[in-house]
């Protein structure tokens, strides 16, 4: 197993996540947790949220990876590889999550 899949970008250049899911704000929806697309920086809601905008964004755009947008959490998820990256896994040493 390679340390990173082909979608992993160790040098992210995206803005910090929003504190809201803008798609939910537009429709008056609610969310549980927030996730951020690592390709375009869009903030969406998690799979526990009724509208699952982060996963919907992946299906719409094919942008492969997200990270948590929750304070105190640091991990990334790759949809095509079903792969979780945690900062203490060793592989992510030196990578700013
Ligand atoms: Zn991947
Ligand atoms: Zn949402
Ligand atoms: Zn995106």
3D architecture notes:
The chain is built from two helices and five strands. It has 97 residues and is α+β, with helices and mostly antiparallel strands. It has a single domain, classed as Herpes Virus-1 (2-Layer Sandwich). Strands 2-1-3-4-5 form a five-stranded antiparallel beta sheet. The longest helix is centred in the middle third of the chain and has 9 residues, at 53-61. The model has no long low-confidence stretch (mean pLDDT 91). The structure holds zinc ion (3 copies). One zinc ion binds at residues 37, 39-40, 42, 57, 61, 63.
Could you give a quick summary of the protein structure above?
This protein is α+β, with helices and mostly antiparallel strands and 97 residues long. Helices cover 15% and strands 18% of the residues.
Relevant terms:
97 residues; alpha+beta; Herpes Virus-1; 5-stranded antiparallel β-sheet; 2 helices; 5 strands; binds zinc ion
Number of domains: 1
Helix content: 10-25%
- The strand order across the widest sheet is 2-1-3-4-5
Largest sheet: 5 strands, antiparallel
CATH topology category name = Herpes Virus-1
List the SSEs and their pairings.
Elements: H1 22-27, E1 34-37, E2 43-45, H2 53-61, E3 65-68, E4 76-78, E5 83-85
Antiparallel strand pairs: 1-2, 1-3, 3-4, 4-5
This protein binds zinc ion (3 copies).
The site of one zinc ion has 7 residues, from helix 2.
């Amino acid at each position: 197993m390679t340390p990173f899949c082909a979608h992993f970008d160790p040098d992210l250049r995206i803005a910090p996540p929003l504190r809201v899911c803008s798609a939910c704000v537009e429709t008056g929806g609610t969310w549980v947790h927030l996730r951020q697309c690592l390709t375009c920086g869009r903030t969406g809601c998690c799979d526990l949220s009724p509208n699952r905008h982060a996963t919907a964004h992946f299906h719409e755009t094919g942008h492969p990876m997200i990270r948590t947008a929750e304070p105190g959490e640091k991990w990334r998820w790759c949809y095509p590889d079903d792969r979780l990256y945690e900062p203490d896994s060793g592989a992510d040493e030196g990578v700013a999550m």
